[in-house]
């Protein structure tokens, strides 16, 4: 076992691939390991490496296997614990990569599996003080805006997606547990928390008193029962952006961030149909209108897949035109990647790589144009920003904001957005 330079405590490295939910789950593992007296270190000095895997695309799975092989081949021969979606789908294949690789499908058991592998009883190191977070960070992995996982799994069956097989059916955290986690984040100094889930808008859970809460009701509970200054929603499906949800956001007095990441995937109805998405562009258009009518300064971002099987140049053009109409503040553009085991992988009309690459370039260029246009609309307005690094903050709509470097990291500051730079960074003047 290679000792950590931090007081002789064993060192564990954490490697994360994939989505926001994976990052939140990794934070929970890190907290549990630190409470057990383990130091979080880089891979080169680690006695054990946790690889939190992702299977959302074939490319992501390939990166997972590469990360596991790399960790297993480190000179010190660390224990490698693989978990996450690839571990759930292909545990035997991961285990066979190297003799020092073990697979743990249950993420709640990862920390215990690491401790067992290092010859430590769970909690044996609990007398040790956890290593301090980096300045301004409120999570062990160094983030200032902690995620709170409120939901897991998905009941949709999009033809390009394998996550529903890896994560299972949709399920939700109890409201009481969500309250506890938000309060714990506040106690660590968080000004903002981000509610995350695989299908966030499907949140449904009993409050223990015979009442089932959906996402808007959970938001109301958090606003009433905690003093959290800012709550942000991560990605959400279009049908779940209801007038009621938008009303709660509007009535929050700015405590719910004016931001929604609404997953579009394509702005062409024919492509959406082949994807087996549960909406069409007319519904998405109504969603955008509803959100903007309730919260006029809201920022809407989205995901867009280009080069999906069967996508013609004409369909791609319609998709871009619809995105331009929606005025997204940002667009995460993905080139379709075959995910073996999904219906889309065997569909006719697979788009050549050079064609999808060119479509990706055009979509990213539109994304940059729209982001600058939406940032420019905000000049002259006031906003609450969270300072993440010296001189750099993030706005309610997730725009980068340049601020006075003397403002402490992790401060929540009201600024006037005085101007915008060519890269869509806003310049904020503290009020």
UniProtKB/TrEMBL annotation:
Positions of the MTTase N-terminal domain: 10-119
InterPro entries: Elp3/MiaA/NifB-like_rSAM, Methylthiotransferase, Methylthiotransferase_CS, Methylthiotransferase_N, Methylthiotransferase_N_sf, rSAM, rSAM_horseshoe, rSAM_sf
Keywords of the record: 4Fe-4S, Iron, Iron-sulfur, Metal-binding, S-adenosyl-L-methionine, Transferase
Highest taxon, organism lineage: Bacteria
The UniProt record lists the keyword 4Fe-4S: yes
Cofactor: [4Fe-4S] cluster
PROSITE patterns: MTTASE_N, MTTASE_RADICAL, RADICAL_SAM
EC number: 2.8.4.-
Molecular function per GO: 4 iron, 4 sulfur cluster binding; metal ion binding; tRNA (N(6)-L-threonylcarbamoyladenosine(37)-C(2))-methylthiotransferase activity
Ranges of residues in domain Radical SAM core: 140-373
SUPFAM superfamilies, A to Z: Radical SAM enzymes
Name by which UniProt lists this protein: MiaB/RimO family radical SAM methylthiotransferase
Organism: Thermophilibacter provencensis
């Amino acid at each position: 076992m290679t000792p950590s330079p931090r007081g002789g405590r064993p060192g564990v490295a954490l490697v994360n691939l994939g989505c926001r939910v994976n990052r939140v789950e990794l934070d929970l593992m890190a907290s549990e390991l630190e409470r057990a007296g383990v130091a979080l270190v880089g891979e080169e000095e680690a006695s054990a490496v946790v690889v939190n895997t992702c299977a959302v695309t074939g490319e992501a799975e390939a990166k997972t296997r590469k990360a596991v092989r790399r960790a297993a081949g480190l000179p010190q021969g660390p224990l490698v614990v693989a978990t996450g979606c690839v571990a759930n789908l292909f545990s035997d294949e991961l285990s066979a990569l190297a003799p020092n690789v073990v697979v743990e499908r249950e993420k709640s058991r990862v920390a215990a599996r690491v401790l067992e592998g290092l010859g430590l009883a769970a909690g044996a190191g609990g007398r040790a003080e956890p290593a301090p977070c980096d300045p301004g960070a409120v999570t062990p992995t160094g983030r200032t805006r902690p995620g709170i996982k409120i939901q897991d799994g998905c009941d949709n069956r999009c033809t390009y997606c394998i996550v529903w097989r890896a994560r299972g059916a949709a399920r939700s955290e109890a409201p009481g547990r969500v309250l506890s986690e938000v309060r714990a984040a506040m106690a660590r100094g968080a000004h903002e928390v981000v509610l995350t889930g695989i299908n966030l808008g499907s949140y449904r859970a009993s409050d223990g008193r015979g009442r089932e809460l959906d996402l808007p009701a959970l938001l109301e509970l958090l606003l009433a029962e905690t003093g959290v200054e800012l709550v942000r929603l991560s990605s959400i499906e279009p049908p779940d952006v209801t007038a009621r949800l938008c009303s709660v956001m509007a009535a929050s007095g700015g405590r719910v961030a004016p931001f929604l990441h609404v997953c579009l995937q394509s702005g062409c109805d024919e492509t959406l149909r082949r994807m087996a998405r549960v909406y069409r562009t007319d519904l998405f258009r109504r969603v955008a209108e509803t959100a903007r009518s309730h919260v006029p300064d809201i920022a809407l971002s989205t995901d867009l897949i280009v080069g999906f099987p069967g996508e013609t140049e004409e369909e791609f053009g319609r998709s871009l035109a619809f995105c331009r109409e929606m005025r997204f503040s940002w667009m995460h553009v993905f080139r379709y990647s075959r995910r073996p085991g999904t219906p889309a992988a065997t569909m006719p009309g697979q788009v050549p790589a050079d064609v999808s690459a060119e479509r990706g370039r055009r979509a990213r260029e539109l994304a940059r144009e729209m982001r600058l246009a939406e940032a420019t609309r905000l000049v002259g307005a006031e906003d609450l920003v969270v300072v993440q690094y010296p001189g750099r903050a993030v706005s309610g709509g997730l725009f980068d904001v340049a601020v006075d470097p003397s403002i402490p990291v992790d401060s929540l500051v009201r600024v006037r957005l005085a101007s915008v730079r060519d890269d869509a960074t806003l310049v904020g003047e503290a009020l």
